[in-house]
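Session log. Operator J.P. requested a structure for one protein chain; no other inputs attached. Running the standard single-chain path with token output.
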Amino acid sequence: MAPPLTSEQISQILSDCRLECDSLLVERVQTYVQFLSKWNARMNLTAIQSPIDVLKILFAESFFAAGLVGDPKGPILDIGSGAGFPGLAMALYRPELKLILLEARKKRAAFLAALRRELGLVEVEVWNRRLEECMRADFSDLPTLLTMRAVGGIGAVVEYGSRLLRGDRSILLFSSVQAAKSTLEDVKNVCWQPPVPIPWNPTHLILLGHADVPRETLRSK
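Structure written below.
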């Protein structure tokens, strides 16, 4: 296994990705990586093993996405959070964002909850439940943006998840150039903006749009 990245290496890589980076963020990334390495040995949280790839793909792409959402005017709902990407990493980069991390697997939800406490991310909630178990009445403040990374059945997930949103009902997805066409075709009733390439890896894209949910399909229970 490759040795962990030093603080200098983390700072340099994030700077090369043109991301704002200070000593506190670097320290928190190191804490996150230590947690991830420890728990990943027991439960396979991520298949990405190279420390540089973990930083540039999982962390940096999540940070870049956090910079695209502006002020979402409400919580962000991260579906299938797994190892915390993108949701927990977005909160790491912008601690003022409110995040709800939805993770159906108990052990992964426990990982997210422990890491949230360790990092002191008070605006983050961890829900150990499936998306289809959620109703609008479960939220004290309905989310305004839905995001996910590497979740199967993406069309159905966005369709159901959109019903839980309010406001602009924003959608933010991670994709490759190769997969983007099928993703855009698969996800119905979303008005998409032009894809945003990841600056340091143009083969990866951020897909941004707004869901058009008929009023009669919104769940009030």
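Operator note: The CA atoms of residues 135 and 160 lie 10 Å apart.
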